[in-house]
Amino acid sequence: MCEIFVRANPDSYQTQSRSLRLHGVATSIRLENLFWEVLEELAQRDAMTVNQLLTRLHDELAEHRGEASLSANFASFLRVCCLRYLMLQGEGRIPADSHVPIRSLDARAVLDGLPPSWGAEGSPLHS
């Protein structure tokens, strides 16, 4: 069983820091290379750079959860975003065709009927 996981390319779990500006504030985010690859695919799907995607995720998280949510670990949030993206693709809820923009998808349809552990209580999508 573990062979499936231990045969991963060691470069995929090496970490890399990237610097970016979020509304003029310089910050650095450290993630494993595999997560950066997934974020690059996500950004490319909507014709954005990774920095533009991270700024958008940052802003939408603040809007949805409040500014206090940003004091939590943003890097962990990004890892969960990548995992959710891959899991939703595996479930067939997000097309595997990377030419289909994420913004073109109906979020309600993508998220409808997810297991409770995948969703958020009180989410407007579940109201």
Could you explain the architecture of this structure?
By secondary structure, the protein is α+β, with helices and mostly antiparallel strands. It has one domain (10-118): Ribbon-helix-helix fold. 43% of the residues lie in helices and 13% in strands. It is built from five helices and two strands. It has helices spanning 3-6, 33-45, 50-65, 74-90, 107-111, and strands spanning 15-22, 25-32. Strands 1-2 form a two-stranded antiparallel sheet. Strand 1 and strand 2 form a beta hairpin. Helix 2 (33-45) packs across helix 4 (74-90). The protein starts with a helix and ends in a 16-residue tail after the last helix. The model is unreliable at 122-127 (pLDDT under 50).
End-to-end gap: 40 Å
Kindly provide the name of the CATH class. Mainly Alpha
Largest sheet: 2 strands, antiparallel
Number of domains: 1
Average pLDDT over all residues: 88
Protein name: Ribbon-helix-helix domain-containing protein
InterPro entries: RHH_dom, RHH_sf
Domain Ribbon-helix-helix: 16-86
Organism: Cupriavidus campinensis
